[in-house]
Design brief:
With 491 residues, the chain is α/β, with parallel strands linked by helices. The protein is built from 14 helices and 21 strands. The strands form five sheets. Strands 8, 9, 10, 11, 12 and 13 form a six-stranded mixed β-sheet that branches. A five-stranded parallel β-sheet has the order 5-4-3-6-7, with helices on both faces. The protein is rod-shaped.
Length: 491
């Protein structure tokens, strides 16, 4: 029997509600976390009231987008600025120092998750466990990879694993950006000074030592383990090319102590002050720290790391033009400073220095005079354009004239040979005509002579004819006279 039309929407609605309910139940299922101490911690529901007992954890929570769930922090938790703003508004409570948090303040916040570290007093951890407040303990990271694991752990404990995976990817991409540019650099000697009087340095198996290595440096105290105390003489003997020190206005003790050694000529390396909060906190700002170290020990690499977003140039020009080419360059990193922007025009390199904040883009202009006809290939970063250069109108006329003269010469060249032949033949003809003229004159004279002779002969012929006629007539007359007389005589 078919279902009535009114029943179908009800079934669909029931299925939808059931799906939501099932998903909600599944989402609210307790999870178990194994922290850095091997403790199995059960977290019954998604934490919405979190107490962070280390500045690096607080930074991580806010970087994961969980700042609205944080209700308690230490007095050292000062980043991002939103933390202090929330503290000022009473939305977040300061529960004490890094190693001296107040158990009473933590409990009073009724947290459903506390994130602690390996330097916490054990009794605080035990009391929280006895009260049924979930607390996970995280060791201070000794490498970049351990930092990734810590972010994963915090993400899982806060039911934000996807956000943690994305944050890790972002950090890895930023570090990989610099590692790619550093793969062929020569390693330089570096030391990180954690304290003076007595002198403490970062040895092997420390977070900063790992960063120095990945940033193209060599920790001169890598033979020491952890945060090691050394003598001033050891630092003088090793005399690294670069010395990293924590420094911030109002916290100059370490910086001043190392600078004094340099002024006395005991050490000669470059001194690089870095914000102690960034330097000492293995957290989401590791990408900033990494870039700061790159900038310090390999400035030639850092300065040229510029992203060219666009080249603006004319597509055509005329020889002699003063061209202006615009380059839109951006600082792809997280650290401000002077960047070198290079522009190549047919292999000739032009460069400018420009101060850029993190992510800032500025439009730079380069000028040059076009000297030759042809195609000019302009390159900057991964961008390129082509400028086609034509000659000037005067050059066009000059070239046209030269081309016409050349073509005319090529056309007349074979004719000139023919003209020379014709000229020779004409000279020969003229000579023959001259000879003919001479011969004609002689012939004319001969003709005249012949004509005279002919006239003479004709006259002679006429005379002869007349004489012959006379003779014949005379003869006839004689005959006519003689014959009848003879006849008469006979008779």
């Amino acid at each position: 029997m078919p279902l009535r039309p009114t029943v179908l929407p009800l079934i669909s609605l029931t299925l939808l509600i059931s799906s939501i309910f099932i998903c909600t139940i599944a989402a609210e299922q307790p999870i178990k976390i194994i922290d850095d101490f091997g403790r199995i911690v059960s977290i019954p529901k998604k934490p919405t009231r979190i107490v962070s007992l280390a500045p690096s954890f607080t930074e991580t929570l806010f970087a994961l987008g969980l700042g609205d769930r944080v209700v308690g922090v230490t007095s050292y938790c000062n980043y991002p600025p939103e933390v202090l703003e929330k503290v000022g508004r009473g939305e977040i409570t300061v529960v004490g120092g890094y190693t001296t948090p107040s158990l009473e303040k933590i409990v009073a916040l009724e947290p459903d998750l506390v994130i602690g570290h390996n330097h916490l007093p054990p009794d605080i951890v035990m009391k929280l466990e006895e009260l049924g407040i979930p607390i996970i303990l995280i060791n201070t990271s000794r490498s970049i990879e351990e930092l990734y694991e810590d972010i994963k752990l915090i993400g899982k404990a806060c039911w934000a694993e996807d956000e943690a995976a994305q944050l890790i990817k972002t950090i890895k991409d930023r570090i990989a950006f610099w590692e790619e540019r550093l793969k062929d650099v020569r390693r330089v000697d570096v030391a990180e000074i954690a304290w003076v009087n007595p002198l403490f340095v970062a040895g092997n198996d420390t977070y900063i030592s790992d960063i120095i290595w990945h940033a193209g440096g060599r920790n001169v105290f890598s033979d020491k383990q952890g945060w090691a105390q050394v003598s001033d003489e050891e630092l003088v003997k090793r005399d690294p090319s670069h010395i990293i020190v924590p420094y911030r206005h109002g916290v100059e003790l370490i910086y001043d102590g190392i600078m004094e050694m340099k002024k006395r000529g005991l050490i000669h390396g470059e001194i690089h002050p870095i914000d102690p909060d960034i330097l000492s906190r293995p957290g989401p700002r590791v990408a900033i720290l990494f870039e700061e170290v790159v900038k310090a020990i390999h400035p030639e690499t850092w300065e040229k790391a510029v992203e060219v977003e666009r080249i603006i140039a004319p597509s055509r020009a005329v020889v002699g033009d003063l061209l202006t080419i615009f380059v839109l360059a951006r600082n792809p990193g997280l650290v401000a400073g002077e960047k070198i922007v290079e522009l190549s025009i047919n292999g000739e390199v032009f460069s400018q220095k420009v101060l850029l904040r993190p992510g800032e883009a500025r439009l730079l202009n380069f000028t040059f005079v076009v000297k030759e006809v042809g195609e000019y290939v302009v390159k900057a970063g991964g961008q390129s354009v082509v400028i086609k250069v034509s000659p000037t109108s005067e050059e066009i006329m000059s070239r046209a004239r030269e081309s016409f003269e050349k073509s005319l010469q090529e056309y007349l060249s074979p004719m000139s040979s023919r003209i020379e032949v014709l000229a020779g033949e004409l000279n020969n003809l003229r000579e023959r005509i001259r000879n003919l003229d001479v011969n004609s004159t002689a012939l004319s004279e001969r003709i005249v002579e012949l004509r005279g002779e002919l006239e003479y002969l004709r006259n002679m012929a006429v005379t002869s004819a007349i004489i012959s006629g006379i003779a014949i007539a005379a003869t006839a007359i004689l005959i006519l006279y003689i014959v009848p007389r003879r006849r008469k005589a006979k008779t």
